[in-house]
Specification:
Strand content of chain A: under 5%
Oligomer: homodimer
Largest interface: A-B, 52 and 52 residues
Number of helices of chain A: 15
């Protein structure tokens, strides 16, 4: 699905963020050890790294320095990883498989998984406080954007709506509101963080990018719902069909599989239109958006 | 135990931080509602507010502006509150009573309590990103100090050692190492945040304050262990004797009740000595330290 050039970039960037995360995560040699092991287990060798990739691609818009982008990319991935560890806990989704491996609580016990998630969230903010080659005021903005995207007004709030909606047939507007916060907020934050690392964009470009981020976040979620139905567990590396089993509201449940696919493609088109005010410096972001919606896992 | 003047100040400061927290916490009118309710339930109308009091008292050393101190005080209390919500969960201490009320998971369910704790941690960092009347570089330092005190190198790391130590007779050095991180780190951070809000201290004063914070944190913990044995549930507002029941290592278990009391008093003396390089501007901090070790709940 991805062009050879995009594939190469994604692979190289994925290997690079892996090294960055490895360096920023605490060493297992530090006491107590088990916590650090659980944190590293939750983060390393896993996932598509979609959020770091968005940070890097957005960083190209403002020629951002690599060292600053690395910290921004690590921060969003650490927030994402913490949310997965807590989501998988028995009191939430009670899932035993993630990225083809036993989930953190299966491997380390519930209490340690809880603490590991907590400490990963803390580390995300810490990493931004030591982002190199940045003005303190821009660093503060990054911290603010990440906190807003992660907290009650963002990801955690979206998860709470999700919790309250099990077995409820949400209308499309509320479903989109939930996803805009649950996954869209952090995807949009990834793009904003990448931009904050570089030179300032024009107001028109900032608006265009915000529209792009909103549509892409939604398209990404619709694509996820489609994959949950259309792909199998081995391909996904996580339990397939679990949303339907859990009686959770999804786009596929709302509009059917084919309609959901068409809707994802439509949202992607709208996202790409919003990038028209950019030149070739947005090419990577355009390609990455296309890939993220048409991916097969 | 507290002088009438200290009592009045503690009461006024306690009412003040309550209003600050009320203003900074999300409104229950915001969707999803339940999450915001759980967050407010976990934070408001509760606790001794020892950490905010330390922020305010330390702020007097550098004539810090009230508005900045308010955000620093709220941030440390939000971290403390999040840690209590997660500590009380069934997979951790499984406690049903906190500050005389049912714990958050008893009231709102486990999943919502997990999310509320998560969102409270996020809010702590967000609140510092919008602290008024501060230089961005000092704000960044506050964020860094709070993150270090809360994460794997601080509070979460101390809790992980605690988890791994149930049923183990820890030697005193390791017990102190655990407490230095589990509770000491955030108490010390409270003092540092209060100082960061004001004018810079001399290097000698900074060293003195760090020694004060370390000894006070330990004294506070020894006093807590004593109270866990010596006070009853009604006075504490939380389940008394639960450390002993859970077979957790405590100072009382290690050295006996009277020895532990004497040790707390000795640590307090060492803490106060370290403040000798300060004049009357440290009087509140001295009094608060004395109160926190000799308190009865």
């Amino acid at each position: 699905m991805a062009s050879p050039e995009l594939s190469r970039w994604m692979q190289a960037s994925g290997q690079h963020i892996e090294q960055v995360l490895d360096r920023l995560l605490p060493s297992v040699a530090e006491a107590p050890g088990t916590l650090q092991q659980a944190m590293r287990y939750a983060v390393l060798q896993g996932g598509k790294r979609m959020r770091p990739l968005l940070v890097y691609a957005a960083g190209e818009l403002g020629q951002a320095p690599q060292a600053a982008l690395d910290h921004a990319a690590a921060a969003v991935e650490l927030i994402h990883a913490y949310s997965l560890v807590h989501d998988d806990l028995p009191c939430m989704d009670n899932d035993v498989l993630r990225r083809g491996k036993p989930t953190v609580h299966v491997q380390f016990g519930e209490a340690m998984a809880l603490l590991a998630g907590d400490a990963l969230q803390t580390l995300a903010f810490e990493v931004l406080t030591i982002a190199p080659e940045m003005k303190p005021s821009a660093q503060l903005q990054m911290l603010h954007v990440l906190a807003q995207a992660s907290g009650a007004a963002g990801m955690a709030g979206g998860q709470a709506i999700d919790l309250d909606s099990v077995g409820v047939a949400l209308p499309q507007a509320q479903l989109e509101q939930m996803h805009a916060r649950k996954t869209g907020a952090l995807l949009a934050a990834s793009i904003r963080l990448g931009v904050l690392c570089g030179t300032e964009l024009s107001p028109q470009q900032q608006v265009g990018l915000a529209v792009f981020a909103r549509h892409l976040g939604l398209a990404f979620q619709v694509a996820d719902d489609v994959l949950d139905v259309a792909a199998d567990t081995a391909t996904l590396g996580k339990t397939a069909g679990k949303d339907a089993q859990a009686n959770k509201p999804t786009y596929v449940a709302l509009m059917g599989l084919e309609e959901a696919r068409a809707y994802a493609a439509h949202l992607l088109q709208q996202a790409l239109q919003a990038l028209e005010c950019f030149g070739p410096e947005a090419e990577r972001l355009r390609q990455l958006a296309g890939y993220s919606v048409h991916r097969t896992y």
